[in-house]
Amino acid sequence: MKITLAEGAGGVSTARLISEVFAKHFQNPILAGMEDAAVLPTESFSQIALTTDSFVVTPLFFKGGDIGRLAVAGTVNDLLMRGATPRYLTAAFIIETGTDTDTLEKIARSMAETAKEAGVLIVAGDTKVVEGDGQVFINTTGVGFVPAGVEISASRAEVGDVVLLSGTLGDHHAALLSARMGIENAVESDAAPLTAMVQELLSAGIRLHAMRDVTRGGLGTVLTEIAEASGVQIELEEESLPLTPAVKSFCGLLGLSPLYMGNEGKLIALLPAEEAERAIEIVRSSPYGKNAAIIGTVAAGDGVILRTPLGGRRKIGPLVGEGLPRIC
Amino acid sequence: MRTADLVQAIAAYDGKPLTIMEVCGTHTAAISECGIPSLLPSTIRLISGPGCPVCVTVSAYIDRLIQLATSPNTCVVSFGDVLRVKGSSGDLRSTKGARVEMVYTPFRALELAESDPYTTFVFAAVGFETTAPLYALLVEQIIARGIDNLKLLTALKTMPAVIRTLCQEDNTGGNACTADFFSTIDGFIAPGHVATVTGSALFGELAQEVGKPFAVAGFTAPSLLAAILALAGSAGRAEVYNFYPSAVTAEGNLEALAKVDRYFEPCNAAWRGLGTIPHSGLRLREAFAHLDAGSDALTADHIPAGCHCGQVIAGKCAPANCPMFGKACTPESPIGACMVSMEGACYHHYINDRR
After folding, report:
1. Which secondary-structure segment (H or E) carries A227?
2. Which of A89, A108, A231, A246 is the most exposed place for a label (fewest CB within 10 A)?
3. Could you tell me which residues of chain B have a Cβ less than 8 Å from any Cβ in chain A?
C-alpha cells in the first residue's frame, strides 16, 4: 500500500499506520501507553546525556544497512561517545507520499532489531506525511545516563595519549557512493551500534579521555576537532590506518581520501599509552572491533600530522568542500 | 635502491640550490600525500606546473559551459572539478537554472543522451593526452550509435609546447610575485600519465631542445623519489630518465595515439595565465565538427582581481605568496581554479600546509 496524505492527517489512517507498522515493531510498555509524552524513570544516575540527529540518506537500503539501522546506531553511538549508557530513543518520521508501507515496515523492523542490539527502547515517536516521491526522513533523539566519575570529552585528550581506531575507515561512505553510482563491489556499510564495545571499555576501567564516532567529515575532521578542543597535536601513522582492500581500491579509483570518508560504526578513543594494550584487546574481541588498531599518539603542539610510510610528514586538516572526485 | 636509501640520498644532497617542477597535477597530489616536501633538503624546491587540467582552463570556456547549461533543452555533462571553477562571473554549480549532470566517466553521457532525446547534452571535454583517448572513444560511440543529441565542448591540452614556453627565459624571469622566486627551473618531473600515452621519447627531444633534464615518474613514493634524485644528480644534463617503465615506453601507446589522431587535430590553445600557445591543444577534426558545441575562439582569460593563479601555474609564484591564499581564497570558497581542483597547487599547499 502506498502512503497518501491521509496517513498524515492524524485520524484513523494515521493511527493505523502507527499501530500496524511502528508500534508493532517498537513495542515496549512505555510506548504502549500512547500518551502525549513518555515518562521515564531516572534510575540512580545524576547526569543524563541527550543528543539528536536526522537521517536523510539515499538510497534507503544499501549493502550492510538501511536508514533505520543508521537512525538508531547514529544516535546511540553519539550517546556512547560521552560515556553514557544509552537507554531511550524517540523516532520522528517524515514520510513522502508514494512511500510503500512495506518499505516503512522494513525500516521499522530494522530499527527495532538495532535498538534491541543497542540496548535502547524507542519510547516516543511522530509521523508526518508530506507530498513527494517516496523518500523517508528520520529524526531520532536519544537519552542516556552517565555513570558517576565518567568524564569523556573532546577537550580531554592529553599529551602521551594514544589514538585507538576501532576498525577500517570509509566503509559506509564508500558503500553509499557505490550504490548511488551503480558500482558493483565488495564494499559494505559498517552501520552498527557500538554499545558492547564502549561498555566493555568502561567496565574494564580504561581511562577514556576523548571519544568520537568517525562519521561525516571522516577521521581528518574528527581528529582536527579533538586536537583543537584539547590544545594538543595528534600524530598519525599512515601505515597503521586500517582499510579494506575494497575501500582502498574504490578510493584510488575516484581519487577520494579515506581520511575524509564517513563511517557509521567506528570510533576513535584517546587514552593513556599505558592502557593501550588492554584497550585494543577489549575492542578487538568486541563486536565490530576486530580490525582495531592504535593509529597515532598525542603530543604537545597543535593540529593533526600524518607520518607517511616514507617518514614524511604532512598536515591533515578538516574536510573542506564536499570532496568532488578528481578529473583524471 | 631501497626507498629509505632514496630518502637518505636526497637528504644528503649538497649541490647548488635546485628548483624542480612537477608538471602533472596527479604528481602534485601524490607528492603532498607522500609527505615528500618535508623530506627534501632546503636546497631542493618542488614547484607545481601547468598539468592540472581544470587549473589551466580559461574563463571563456567556463562562460561558454554556463551559457550552454542555461540554454533551453540543454544539459552540460561534466566531471566534478569543473563545476566549481569560476568563469568571468560565476561557476556552473551556483548558476541559477544551469542544468548540469556530474559523471565519473564520459560514457555515462551516452546513456543520458539516449534516455532523453529531446535534450542536447554537452560533455565538458577537459583534459590532457591522458583523457583525450577517452574522448576519442566517446566520439566513436556517438557516431556508432547514431546519437545526434550529444556534443563535446573541448578544452584539450597537449604537453610539450607549454613546457617550452615556460623555459623561455623572458617568461620565467619576469613579473614573478617575489623577486627571488623561481628565476629558473632546473629540471622537470615529466607527467607519468601523459607519458604513458605520448611515450618518453617526446620528453627526450624536449630535454635536448630546452637544455634541461626530465624524469618521467609514476605515482608512488619510490618512483617520485628516484626521479628527484636523478634530477638532482643530473648536473643539468639534458637527458630523459624513465622511472615509470612498467607503464611508459619510449614510443608511447600507439593505439591510443592513433585513436586520438583519427578524431582530433592539433590546434592553438588558450592557457590560464599563459596566453595562447601554438600547437598546445586538440580540437575535433573538420569531419567531426558537427559534434563540437562551440569550442573555437574561447580564449578570453579573465582572472579575478588579486588572484595569482596565472603565475602559480607557470611556477612564478608560490601559492602561499598569493595575497588571497588562505584568506579570501580557500577550498571552501575558492577564487582561483588552483584552489578548486584536488590536483591544484593551491589546494594542496593549503590542505597539507605544504611549503
Report:
1. helix A218-230
2. A231
3. 3-4, 7, 26, 29, 32-39, 53-54, 79-84, 102, 104, 126-128, 130-131, 193, 221, 225, 330-332, 341-343, 351-354
What ipTM score was computed for the predicted complex, to two decimals?
A: 0.73
- Given a cut of 50, is residue B30 above it in pLDDT? yes
Query: What is the spatial distance between Cα A130 and Cα B256, in angstroms, rounded to a whole number?
Result: 53
Strands B44-48 and B74-78: unpaired
Residue B130: Cβ within 10 Å count: 23
CB B172 within 8 A of CB B316: yes
Q: Residues for chain A: how many in total?
A: 328
Given a cut of 60, is residue B335 above it in pLDDT?
A: yes
| pLDDT score of A263 | 94
Burial of A86 per CB tally in 10 Å (0-12, 13-18, 19+) = buried
Angle made by CA atoms A309, A315, A321, in degrees to the nearest 5: 115
Of all helices (H) and strands (E), which one includes residue B195?
Answer: helix B192-198
Q: How many CB atoms lie within 10 A of CB A206?
A: 20
Contact assignment for B330 to A310 by CB distance below 8 Å: no
Q: How many beta carbons lie within 10 A of that of residue B230, not counting itself?
A: 20
pLDDT in tens, A99-118: 999 999 999 999 999 999 99
pLDDT tens per residue across span A219-250: 999 999 999 999 999 999 999 999 999 999 98
Question: Which residue spans within A26-120 are E strands per DSSP?
Answer: 47-55, 61-62, 65-66, 85-96
Q: Model-level pTM? A: 0.83
Pair type for strands B74-78 and B120-127:
parallel
Furthest CA-CA distance within chain A: 67
- C-alpha closest to that of A61 among A99, A98, A25: A99
Say which residue the cell 579509483 belongs to.
Answer: A253
Please name the amino acid found at residue A95: I
CB A298 within 8 Å of CB A232: yes
Q: For residue B233, what are the CA distances in angstroms to A296, B10, B36, B44, B238?
A: 36, 10, 18, 12, 12
H or E element in which residue A19 lies? none
Which domains, from first to last, does chain B contain?
3-46+159-243 (3.40.50.11750), 54-158+252-291 (3.40.50.11740), 309-351 (no CATH)
Q: Could you read off the pLDDT of A57-83 as tens digits, one per residue?
A: 989 999 999 999 999 999 999 999 999
- B8 in helix, strand or coil? helix
Q: Looking at this protein, which amino acid is placed at residue A303?
A: G
Do residues A178 and A261 make contact, with C-beta atoms less than 8 angstroms apart?
no
